[in-house]
Write a structure and sequence with these properties.
By secondary structure, this protein is mostly helical. It has a domain at 1-48. The protein is built from four helices and no strands.
């Protein structure tokens, strides 16, 4: 999944400004590289830019570390 994000994030700006013929060539390249379908590739190329997988993992790791250092609340009995 991370490789798909990197490919679509990189080629998204080229796809948006490309001519119709060039868009077909970019779609063919994305489909061949990632293995996803053409309609999915088109949606990923025209949609919002997704966060870089490295940044997303770092954010998850830092939030887990913050919750691990926070003391647990005692349950009232």
């Amino acid at each position: 999944m991370a490789a798909r994000r990197q490919v679509t994030n990189k080629l998204g700006s080229q796809y948006r400004t490309a001519s119709r013929a060039d868009k077909g060539a970019i779609l063919d390249r994305v489909v061949a590289t990632t293995g996803m379908g053409r309609s999915t590739a088109r949606r990923m190329l025209t949609g919002q830019r997704l966060p870089d997988p490295k940044d997303q993992v770092d954010a998850r790791t830092s939030s887990r570390a913050a919750t691990a250092t926070t003391p647990a609340l005692a349950h009232p009995t």
